[in-house]
Design goal:
Blueprint (H helix, E strand, L loop, with lengths): L6 E5 L3 H12 L3 E6 L7 H6 L5 E5 L4 H6 L2 E4 L8 H8 L3 E3 L1 H6 L6 E5 L4 H14 L4 E5 L6 H6 L5 E5 L2 H4 L9 E4 L13 H9 L10 E5 L3 H5 L7 E6 L7 E5 L2 E6 L2 E6 L9 H15 L4 H9 L9 E6 L2 E5 L6 H8 L5 E6 L11 H7 E7 L3 H8 L4 E4 L3 H11 L5 E4 L12 H13 L8
Parallel strand pairs: 1-2, 1-4, 2-3, 4-5, 6-8, 6-9, 7-8, 9-10, 10-11, 11-12, 16-20, 17-18, 17-20, 18-19
Antiparallel strand pairs: 12-13, 13-14, 15-16
Helix pairs in contact: 6-11, 6-12, 11-12, 16-17
Length: 452
Amino acid sequence: MKLVDKHILVVGLARTGIAVTRFLARSGARVTVTDLRSAETLAAALDELAGLAVDYVLGRHDEADFAAAELVVVSPGVPQDSPYLLAARRAGREVITEIELAARFIVAPLAAITGTNGKTTTTTLTGEIFRGCGFRTFVGGNIGNPLIELVESGEAAERVVVEISSFQLEWIREFHPRVAVLLNLTEDHLDRYATFDEYIAAKMRIFENQDAGDYAILNLDDPLVASLAGGLKAAVFPMSQQREFAAGIFHRDGTIVFRHAGREERFPTASFKLPGVHNLDNIMAALATALLLGCDAQRALAAVEGFVGLPHRMEFVRELDGVRYYEDSKATNVGSVEKALASFTAITLIAGGKDKGGSYAPLEPLVRERVEHLILIGEAKERMARELGQLTDTRQCTTLEEAVTLAAQLAAPGGVVLFSPACSSFDMFRDYAERAERFKAAVRALVGRSGR
């Protein structure tokens, strides 16, 4: 892709926008950056780009800039129906996201992982397996490290693993993973997409440029994912906790079995450290990806056995008075909470936050069967109470700290207090990580019946 003297507009100056701008400017492109935030607000970002030949349009967007650029690299946070992006399209300009730009410069085998839930754990674990098997590996994408940072660094990665969001997939054109993984599909981001079908269509673009020499790893236990398998050009590699395959990966009687091209590998799960039944899906997807891209089975198993998981995903906080406390702040949608509830019984569930527009109905059977007390917080608490409150003992609290104190009073020895919100955090907190730390601090501040 020729960049020298190419007029490129970068939209948004968060971490990804900074990395894109730096790469393009150093590659000889004529770069303009536009952001609705002011120069004062963006002072730290501008300092990172000091000395580079970049033009800035800050505090506003100008349709003329979008129409004049030869290429527009847009932040995934900007919706497709933005009038500025529509102006670029009307002018015949190419609009892409950073993930598409970076992939055009990467030659190493690339694995891309998407789904509503489990993406970050699966992506991180896949990277750990590749590293454990001796491959120089870059892990990034939606997980935190922009893919363009690999290109900019000039490092010779042998394997590349990226977490891909639906937002990033909206503007791809040539993005072509050697292995693409779809973990699951549940309602999410309906504050962005008009319908669930639009969200699914964005996710499915991960397979768009694959061919018969590539692999599509699909979780066939998810009915929606299974229904979409027939239209793919890549070789479908199925995974399941419920079914056995002659070729694929599945879990049976405490063992994960991988079968491909006459090869069979077995991975006993007794020594795995990741809690929760849903993490078996994540482990199977990671193992399948790694083995399809050349990893040794025994070294892969050792990497899985050493993986303890990520913060804010079913994270054990403490046990007090016989009650275990788990923080699952990353569970920002209903599908993720379903998996958390399926992992425990005798649950006191703390949930709520900023509503994302989906239905809470899928939680009904698990709330009825497993949740003894439901404590609701945040903007969504009234709606959640209407949809779920009749299923179990339900209370509402004003703050997260108040909810933790109440949960400690209600939960009986042998039970679990689970903070799994099913909502985003932006009504009360900066992000899900701040929300998680507040929960953990409140739990650690509890005083038990013994006075400790």
